[in-house]
Design brief:
With about 110 residues, the protein is of the alpha+beta class. About 45% of the residues lie in helices and about 15% in strands. Strand 1, helix 1 and strand 2 form a beta-alpha-beta unit. Helix 1 crosses helix 3.
Length: about 110
């Protein structure tokens, strides 16, 4: 099983980003375990600079980080009772998780061969 850590940036129970991570795990249809973690309780953490900096730090630590963004405009309208209701967004999430899982598998094959 491939394990993926997803970081939503929020510890709020009803965070749209945390709900998106849950939906990504469900939408992937792959043998993937996605562990969704939040970083803080605040609504805004200056995401404009925090996300790129977090990606740099994770990559420097050896994490596989895809440079993929999936904009979700009007996120509050994309959920019904905490469940993602937008199929186009769900498909984008599935593609992103599949791409990351493939990157991980390629890295594992490289380790075995090397």
């Amino acid at each position: 099983m491939t394990q993926i850590l997803g970081i939503s940036g929020s510890l709020r129970r009803d965070s749209h980003n945390t709900n998106l991570l849950r939906a990504a795990s469900e939408a992937s249809g792959l043998d993937v375990e996605l562990d969704a973690r939040g970083l803080c309780k605040h609504r805004r953490v200056r995401a404009a600079w925090a996300q790129p900096e977090l990606r740099k730090v994770l990559a420097a630590l050896g994490a596989r980080v895809l440079d993929v963004e999936l904009p979700v405009p009007h996120a509050h309208t994309r959920f019904v009772a905490g469940e993602l209701s937008d199929e186009e967004i769900r498909a984008g999430l599935a593609d992103a998780v599949a791409g990351l899982a493939e990157e991980i598998r390629q890295g594992e094959r490289t380790k075995v061969v090397a």
